[in-house]
Design goal:
This protein has a domain of 61 residues. The longest helix has 13 residues. By secondary structure, the chain is mainly alpha-helical. It has 3 helices and 2 strands, in the order αααββ.
């Protein structure tokens, strides 16, 4: 997504450092939670990125996320709720 142009990458890093997005560090137990999610959704194309978004949303009590996956609505957080994908209207 960042292209191969160095300036695009530098601009992205500036945006992140200015608060454009939050980079979340995961604890060891959260990595196991990600593994559980990928395993639970084995019949779907769930991957590390999808599961990481679910864990991050649970950590921050988020109800909305941004994902390029148009079918992200099939995933549910621990409460059984779906996340609102802001890119899908």
């Amino acid at each position: 997504m960042l292209d191969f142009y160095k300036q695009v990458q530098l601009d992205f890093l500036s945006w992140v450092s200015e608060g454009g997005i939050e980079v979340i560090n995961l604890e060891q137990w959260q990595l196991m939670k990600i593994r559980e999610i990928v395993d639970n959704y084995a019949d779907l194309p769930a991957d590390f990125a999808d599961a990481s978004l679910l864990v991050a949303a649970e950590m921050r009590s988020l109800v909305s996320i941004i994902s390029l996956d148009k079918d992200f609505s099939v995933y549910k957080v621990g409460t059984g709720d779906q996340l609102n994908n802001l890119l899908v209207g």
